[in-house]
Design goal:
The complex is a heterodimer of chains A (about 575) and B (about 600).
Chain A: H1 2-26, H2 30-79, H3 82-87, H4 90-132, H5 134-141, H6 144-181, H7 183-188, H8 192-244, H9 253-291, E1 311-319, E2 324-333, E3 338-342, H10 349-356, E4 367-369, E5 372-373, H11 379-385, E6 386-389, H12 400-404, H13 414-426, H14 430-434, H15 453-467, E7 471-475, H16 483-495, E8 501-506, H17 509-512, E9 517-522, E10 525-530, H18 532-538, H19 541-548, H20 550-560, H21 568-573
Parallel strand pairs in A: 3-8, 3-9, 6-7, 7-8
Antiparallel strand pairs in A: 1-2, 1-4, 4-5, 9-10
Helix pairs in contact in A: 1-2, 1-4, 1-9, 2-4, 4-5, 4-9, 5-8, 6-8, 6-9, 8-9, 13-15, 18-19
Chain B: H1 11-19, H2 31-41, H3 45-77, H4 82-129, H5 134-139, H6 142-161, H7 167-184, H8 186-194, H9 196-233, H10 235-240, H11 244-291, H12 298-339, E1 359-368, E2 377-385, E3 389-393, H13 400-407, E4 415-420, E5 423-424, H14 430-435, E6 437-440, E7 449-450, H15 451-456, H16 463-472, H17 476-480, E8 489-490, H18 499-513, E9 517-521, H19 529-543, E10 547-551, H20 555-560, E11 563-568, E12 571-576, H21 578-584, H22 587-602
Parallel strand pairs in B: 3-10, 3-11, 6-9, 9-10
Antiparallel strand pairs in B: 1-2, 1-4, 4-5, 7-8, 11-12
Helix pairs in contact in B: 2-12, 3-4, 3-7, 3-12, 4-6, 6-12, 7-8, 7-12, 8-11, 9-11, 9-12, 11-12, 16-18, 18-19, 21-22
The chains are: A alpha/beta (about 575), B alpha/beta (about 600).
Chain lengths: ~575, ~600
């Protein structure tokens, strides 16, 4: 701020020196003007230094604030629980984190700089101008309100059109994406023509939007400059007349001209500033929506001595809305025991699984790990002990190897790589990874090579195995694998037991059959508990499952017959 | 996830570096690439010429303005001549108007040409992609191809939008300014130029660093947003594994890098802007000092001031422009790199001699593998007569789906011949070949549009036929009852339709197509019994009177087929009707026995 004041004072100083020098020049006192010229050079240099410094301090402050804000946002997002993420979609969050944050930064950097710069500039330039000629000042400033309005108009339009343009580009990308993802169908049906048609429509609309934007951008500067030039013209013509009439000193002309120029841009920026402030405030309000969200899952402080993996659920009732998803669920898992949780879609299996490691808002006094309420445990301890592997696996956009090694500190050591390979082998995915273009170094995820649903599931399973939790909760890890792979996976889970408790959420009777105990959930209630053989004969819900799944098993048996490992493409098709 | 901080030169970091190639930049000018770009710009070259012409005119009108300022002051105001003052102001106004109006057309016409050329390039790319063989898509990430068509062409557009093509008129302008100043007063001009070298040196010193900073900002921005989006998307995973700290550290790496790059660019920009600001002041100061020794007219000084301001305008934009140029060239390089892919889908080849025309479909000693040395099909031979319904059975990976792919020539066979109607499929033009087929894939892909456009597989569906197809498979009520009926919108990837509904749409699509040969890859997913019955009915209607190859998973389908081909590890091991194969006591009978054994055990 001080720097800006000094900068603008320097400019004021230069103008006055210039006027004096000009007077010397016009009146033949050349020696004084030389001295004054020297003074101008000094003032000019000083102005340079202050200008650089003022920009650095203000813009940098804006950028550092942006950095801090972004870090704080991510930190907060990490702490927020599922109720927040159900309320706000990823797209919405991202739009706030990118667009709105940018608007706030605009307010902090550009906004603050210009606010001060404009006010100081206004004072310094007006001081010069008014000192020399009041009527000329008024006349030359006449077009400036127009400039302000025009700037506001453009600033608003530009912002809207830019967003529109971005949306259009996104839509175009979507068309290409779906066309390429469905390329087999396109080929098989010879749909190239019609695909090209729909592409052309998006392409054309993106072109149109782009041209509208180009027109707006292209006309902005000429229009604005034309308006400022009106002021210049006024200075020359009206100023010239005033000189002729002796009401304005010729030597002050150049200084006046410079001052007007200095005034023009800050004022034009003021037009921008109004929208920058408006958008910045709106953006800030939208960021507040995130910051104000309270984390609904907060860790406790009780540190257990040793975790054995005894899990108990006592009278757990849970609802997302009004209707409970789980009603009075009680169950117990002994250390090292394998328990299957079976039920139809919507029976509450996944909700139960997620509640165990507090990925949802577990009610206090309902889930106990080794006798301690999980709500009393620090989150880090709880989640290192109880790992919930979700049904729809999420892989990060990095290499397959790193995805598997997600919980490893040092994945690129010999031991780390051995562990990765081992986990992959146990998860029955190693051969398929080896068949990928770059093996374990193949980048997967959103933008990488697309894995099939079954492959993703098994990579996620390898990741979960590698984490070596005391209690492993696997949510339907077998839904997209064939029967033969299922058997191999279950064998591997047996091998990897090592005193680990296993909760296997599944709808497959064949998988449940291999567990020590089966718990059947129906409409949020535990309806049956017992061994597979026992329940299969009991004639209840579980028996019906067994019956229903017979047809599937027919095929499963067919496929089980000595199948060679599937090549990549086949597996991709199976998705 | 890469933890670049802990392991600065980790292998994964390098892999990812190579993967995020988008941030790489090319040379600023690469004539080879510009030459390849020209055919796309050529149709709009008149726009470019127009822009260049306008550039010369605007430069001229801009250069003349200070002269009139001088005239206005010296001859008008200082001489006390009001009429000269008036004419001077009048011409000045005209010149300003001309310059502004023309400069709009100068900028806009070049952008128009660029945008249109890029739209053409995008279309070319899209068409090109659909000519590549499927094998190409098996190994190339979809996202990368999308960004070729969207981001890279946009980067090239910057070539036009950034005014890089105005460099010519800018150069002309700079030259003009120097000449005009020298002509006005060469001694004063030389003095004014004195301030030039130090500032030029400063700008020169800053520029490469500014460029590097800009480049880094571009790369970091996209990675930062991608990383954040991914963390938000995978929040449950991050939390379930308790990896918040590692995730935050990873993000902080990118965030810090981004901030530092921005801060650097701010510094360079500030120095550059201020330098230009200062040089204007210094020039003026020098001239004032110089006039102390060598008098010049007041108007000349004003004109010089105006020239000096005009001189530095284009220089200020240079650093940023240069980066945009580099990224445009990098984009062009990637785009043309893709266009250089030489593989083509289903190239016309010399076909094998015709076979038995009575066979609708025939495989003769066909061997195939997606990768060398990994055979998927070995020496497969079979024939399907007109109207016959053949089921293909076998375990996952036995090569069932591959049979269908080869039939449509989605992949070329390694050895052997695939024929339809007795003719080698290699002898067909690919579209003509595929017209004979209707395919019902296992995983039905819906396209953005409506139910009707998806069934007709065309932008202009024949609604009567769509209706007829749906009615025939008995699914009309199911879709009619949706809001919007047949015009109900299909979301991206058809996420608003259930698996069963998608399957039915695929049946209707095949029926609408009215092809002679149906290739049906039966879905494995279990569906409720109501839908199951619908599907059964729909399939019967679809297959009625047509030749069909069914990759079968359900026993009911298998039993209904005229003939069964049993595959095992890429070989056709048995062929015959259900009863025949059972009697034969081979692989199929064994599988079937296993099935009944299992049923008995669980009952």
């Amino acid at each position: 701020m001080v720097l800006l004041a000094v900068y603008n004072y320097c400019q004021y100083w230069i103008d006055l020196l210039l006027a004096d020098a000009m007077s010397g020049l016009l009146h033949g006192q050349l020696s004084t003007s030389r001295l004054l010229g020297l003074g101008m050079a000094v003032a000019g240099t000083l102005a340079f230094v202050t200008r650089v410094l003022s920009r650095l301090t203000i813009f940098n402050a804006g950028r550092y604030a942006e950095y801090e804000l972004r870090t704080a946002l991510l930190h907060h997002l990490h702490r927020l629980g599922p109720s927040f993420y159900r309320r706000m979609s990823t797209g919405d969050i991202m739009s706030r984190v990118t667009n709105d944050l940018q608007q706030v930064r605009g307010l902090l950097g550009f906004g603050v700089l210009n606010l001060f710069n404009t006010s100081f500039g206004l004072v310094s330039a007006l001081a010069v101008m008014l000192k020399f000629s009041v009527p000329l000042t008024l006349a030359s400033l006449a077009p400036l309100p127009l400039l302000l309005l025009v700037m506001r108009y453009y600033s608003k339009r530009l912002y809207l059109r830019q967003r529109e343009n971005q949306d259009c580009l996104g839509a175009l990308g979507g068309v290409v994406q779906s066309s390429i993802a469905g390329v087999r169908v396109v080929r098989a049906f010879a749909l190239e023509e019609s695909e090209l048609h729909s592409f052309e429509r998006s392409n054309q609309s993106y072109l149109d939007k782009g041209l509208v934007l180009a027109k707006l951008r292209g006309s902005m500067w000429p229009v604005m400059q034309a308006i400022t030039m009106i002021g210049v013209l006024v200075v020359f013509w009206y100023g010239g007349r005033l000189i002729v009439q002796g009401q304005f000193k010729a030597e002050q002309f150049l200084s006046f001209y410079r001052a007007l120029f200095r005034l023009t841009w800050p004022l034009a920026a003021l037009g921008f500033l109004v929208s920058v402030v408006q958008r910045g405030r709106a953006g800030y309000a939208r960021l507040r929506d995130i910051f104000d969200a309270q984390p609904d899952v907060v860790g406790g402080v009780q540190l257990p001595e040793v975790i054995r993996g005894h899990l108990e659920v006592r009278h757990l009732t849970f609802a997302y809305g009004a209707e409970p998803v789980l009603r009075d669920v009680s169950l117990e898992v002994q250390p090292g025991e394998r328990v299957a949780i079976v039920g139809r879609t919507g029976a509450g299996k996944s909700t139960l699984g997620a509640l165990l490691s507090r990925l949802h808002t577990t009610p206090p006094g309902s889930v106990f790990l080794d006798g301690v309420d999980v709500c009393e445990l620090p989150l880090a301890t709880l989640r290192a002990s109880v790992l919930y592997n979700q049904q729809l696996p999420f892989l990060f956009s990095t290499t397959v190897g790193r995805n598997i090694a997600y919980s490893l500190e040092h994945p690129e050591t010999d031991a780390g790589e051995r562990a990765i390979a081992h986990a992959a082998r146990e998860a029955q995915i190693k051969d398929e990874i080896d068949a990928l273009p770059e093996g374990f170094d193949t980048v997967v995820g959103e933008r990488g090579v697309q894995l099939s649903g079954g492959q993703k599931q098994r990579v996620a399973l390898a990741r979960a195995l590698l984490a070596q939790p005391k209690v492993l909760v696997l949510d339907d890890p077998l839904s997209a694998v064939d029967a033969r792979t299922e058997t191999a996976l279950l064998d591997a889970l047996d091998r990897e037991r090592d005193g680990r408790s296993l909760l296997l959420i599944t709808h497959r009777v064949s998988a449940a059959a291999r567990c020590d105990r089966v718990i059947v959930l129906d409409h949020g209630r535990v309806v049956e508990t017992g061994r597979h053989e026992q329940l299969a004969r009991a004639g209840g819900t579980y028996s019906r499952f067994v019956e229903e799944q017979r047809r599937e098993r027919e095929l499963a048996k067919l496929d089980e017959f000595t199948a060679p490992p599937a090549p990549l493409r086949e597996a991709v098709e199976a998705e | 996830m890469s933890r670049a901080k802990a392991l600065p030169a980790s292998r994964t970091a390098r892999v990812l570096e190579a993967f995020h190639e988008e941030s790489a930049l090319g040379k600023a000018y690469d004539w080879q690439l510009l030459r390849r770009l020209w055919p796309y710009v050529r149709p709009y070259r008149s726009m470019i010429y127009l822009s260049l012409g306008m550039g010369v005119l605007t430069a001229a009108s801009s250069l003349l303005q200070p002269l009139f300022m001088r005239y206005l002051l010296d001859e008008g105001a200082l001489a006390g001549n009001l009429s000269r003052l008036g004419t001077g102001a009048f011409y000045l106004a005209i010149l300003i108007l001309i310059e502004r109006v023309l400069s709009f057309f100068q900028v806009y016409s070049v952008q128009l040409a660029g945008a249109k050329a890029m739209a053409d390039l995008r279309r070319t790319l899209f068409q090109f992609l659909h000519e590549l063989p499927l094998g190409f898509f098996d190994r190339t990430p979809v996202g990368r191809l999308v960004s070729r068509i969207t981001n890279d062409t946009d980067a090239i557009l910057e070539l036009f939008a950034s005014g890089a093509l105005n460099a010519f008129s800018d150069l002309l302008r700079l030259l003009g300014i120097v000449i005009f100043m020298l002509a006005l007063d060469w001694r004063l001009a030389l003095i004014a130029f004195l301030a030039g070298p130090p500032v030029t040196l400063m700008v020169q010193a800053v520029r490469p660093r500014a460029r590097a900073a800009f480049r880094e900002i571009r790369g970091k921005t996209s990675r930062m947003n991608a990383n954040m989006a991914e963390q938000v998307n995978g929040m449950t995973t991050v939390q379930a594994f308790g990896q918040q700290r590692a995730a935050a550290a990873e993000f902080d790496d990118i965030n810090t890098g981004y901030r530092d790059a921005i801060v650097r660019s701010i510094k360079y920009e500030a120095v550059q802007d201020a330098a230009i600001d200062m040089v204007a002041s210094l020039c003026l100061a020098f001239m004032v000092i110089a006039i102390g020794y060598h008098s010049a007219s007041y108007g000349t000084l004003v004109a010089f001031n105006a020239y000096v301001l005009r001189f530095f305008e284009p220089i200020a934009a240079l650093a940023q422009r240069y980066t945009l140029l580099q990224s445009a060239m990098a984009g062009a390089e990637r785009v043309f790199g893709l266009l250089d892919t030489e593989e083509r889908d289903a190239l016309a080849e010399v076909p094998a001699p015709d076979g038995d025309p009575a066979l609708c479909v025939s495989f003769e000693n066909v061997s195939f593998g997606y990768k060398p040395n990994v055979p998927v099909l070995s020496d497969v031979s079979f024939g399907v007569r007109r109207g016959e319904k053949v089921a293909i059975v076998g375990a996952t990976g036995a090569g069932k789906t591959t049979v269908a792919s080869l039939l449509l020539r989605l992949y070329p066979v390694n050895t052997g011949v695939v024929r339809i109607f007795g003719k080698d499929v290699r002898g067909f033009e690919r579209r003509e070949l595929r017209r004979h087929f209707a395919m019902v894939p296992q995983d039905v892909q819906l396209f953005p549009g409506t139910i009707a456009t998806n069934i007709a597989a065309s932008e202009t569906p024949d609604l009567v036929r769509v209706d007829a197809a749906l009615r025939r498979i008995g699914a009309e009520d199911l879709f009619r009852s949706r809001p919007g009926g047949l015009q109900a919108v299909v979301d991206e990837r058809g996420e608003n339709f259930s698996a069963g509904e998608r399957q039915l749409i695929a049946f209707a699509r095949a029926l609408y197509r009215d092809a002679q040969i149906i290739v049906l890859d039966e879905a494995t997913a279990s569906i409720d019994s109501n839908t199951e019955a619908r599907m059964q009915h729909a399939m019967e209607e679809l297959l009625e009177g047509r030749t069909a190859l069914i990759i079968a998973h359900r026993l009911s389908t298998i039993q209904a087929a005229d003939r069964i081909l049993s595959f095992h590890q890429g070989r056709l091991v048995e062929s015959g009707s259900h009863a025949e194969l059972l009697a034969k006591g081979g692989l199929y009978a064994k599988l079937h026995g296993l099935h009944f054994g299992a049923a008995a055990e669980s009952a």
